[in-house]
Design goal:
The chain is of the alpha+beta class. It has one domain. 26% of the residues lie in helices and 27% in strands. It has 5 helices and 9 strands, in the order αβαβββαβββαβαβ. The strands form 2 sheets. Strands 1, 2, 5, 6, 8 and 9 form a 6-stranded mixed sheet that branches. Strand 3 and strand 4 form a beta hairpin.
Length: 198
């Protein structure tokens, strides 16, 4: 088994996103009247029709970068989550434009664990300045976690880091189309966005 000594993951970012969205939506709905996840494309969610239908809305926006948990069969008790430098760069750009940004990862080693009960970790990306590797014990121990965002303080973090926005779809398109047309773009990690209505 050539992969047995290397840290690898059994899921990709899209698969991780399904579990993360299921976990985070109930947390967001304890504070916000509505929390709507979107996969932003400039020609769909950012289209002129979409802009027109949302022109009177004022809300907060959260961006979440799904990350993959990696592990090695040589050290199965260690789960590693990597925060790539490109993610940090994009997070900084989004934060400058009034969008709160986090990364998240399910702490799993098998597809069978993606049943809605897997523990998830959240990273406040405004506190990450370069490429980071985060190591967690497996099975997961919440008491041993450092540098992550407490789920009970998720809404507080968002309100502290996100600016109220009007004409939200138009702003999203104008601020990001020149940087990465599909709010992620080719060869970049693409976040999931949550529209948060007070």
């Amino acid at each position: 088994m050539s992969w047995s000594k290397k840290r690898v993951s059994v899921i990709n970012e899209h698969t991780a996103a399904y579990t993360l969205i299921d976990r985070i939506l109930p947390l967001l709905k304890t504070r916000f009247a509505k929390a709507i996840p979107i996969n932003y494309w400039a020609t769909r969610e950012g289209s002129p029709l979409s802009q027109y239908m949302m022109e009177d809305c004022s809300l907060l926006v959260l961006a979440m970068f799904p990350r993959r948990p990696k592990f090695s069969l040589n050290t199965p008790e260690e789960i590693v989550v990597k925060i790539n430098e490109s993610v940090v760069e994009d997070a900084d750009f989004l934060k400058q434009n009034g969008i709160a940004v986090i990364a998240g990862a399910p702490i799993i080693q098998s597809l069978a664990e993606l049943d809605g009960t897997a523990p998830c970790v959240w990273y406040p990306l405004d506190q990450v300045t370069s490429e980071h590797y985060h190591v967690h014990r497996y099975p997961f121990d919440f008491n041993a976690v450092k540098g992550t965002l407490n789920e009970h303080k998720m809404s507080e973090y968002i309100q502290r880091n996100a600016l109220p926005m009007t004409l939200i779809i138009r702003q999203m398109r104008s601020k990001h189309s020149s940087r990465f047309p599909y709010f992620g773009g080719a060869n970049r990690y693409k976040p999931i966005y949550f529209l948060l209505f007070e």
